[in-house]
Specification:
Shape: elongated
Order of helices and strands: HEEHEEHEEEHHEH
Strand content: 15-25%
Radius of gyration: 23 Å
Helix content: 40-55%
Structural class: alpha+beta
Length: 186
């Protein structure tokens, strides 16, 4: 099993740099020690470096508390940043994107589904993901813009991600990934 193998590797690495003779695995984030039973009682979890949502691999163990806390506080920011980059690359003709964005036009925000590939952007304005009291005239105006290419070129609007990322936290997630990659290699 992968967790057991990573536990043994971590124990051996710790013993090689210390005079500790017990089989203890140290969480690389909080530096708390864990015994083998911590695997079965789920105190130690597989950690992806970088995070799984951007293609990371399971390279080491961290304690469940650190894994969960980092996932909710900084790793999500890294994922949101990568989604934003994906969208920007797609509209520049370098890749593809499919997801939900906010279209802001004349001070009114509309939830839209967007797909982009090779510089071509397709926008859908589904009623299900907008408030029920959303003005019908905005829907019809946006639908007209999408259908009439001449109107589209004259229209001014702004697109925001639904979940904007926090740049500082995304940078911290990058540092965490780099640290864990170094930790796993040692």
């Amino acid at each position: 099993m992968k967790k057991e193998r990573l536990f043994k590797i971590g124990v051996k690495a710790l013993q090689s740099i210390s005079n500790l003779d017990k089989d203890v695995y140290v969480c690389p984030i909080c530096l708390r020690g864990f015994y083998f039973e911590s695997i079965s009682n789920k105190e130690l979890t597989l950690e992806h470096a970088p995070q799984k949502s951007i293609g990371g691999k399971e390279l080491l163990l961290t304690c469940a508390r650190c894994n969960k806390k980092a996932g909710h506080t900084i790793d999500t920011e890294l994922h949101k940043r990568e989604e934003t980059k994906s969208f920007l690359k797609a509209i520049a003709g370098k890749g593809s994107f499919s997801g939900r964005l906010k279209l802001i036009q004349g001070g009114q925000s509309t939830n839209v589904n967007v797909s982009a590939e090779n510089g071509q952007v397709h926008i859908e304005v589904p009623k299900k993901i907008n408030p029920p009291d959303f003005p019908k005239q905005i829907f019809s105006h946006l639908e007209n813009i999408v259908q009439e290419k001449d109107l589209w070129s004259k229209e001014k609007f702004k697109i925001n991600t639904v979940y904007p990322f926090h740049k500082h936290k995304a940078n911290i997630a990058d540092l965490k990934s780099a640290y864990l990659l170094v930790f796993a290699s040692l």
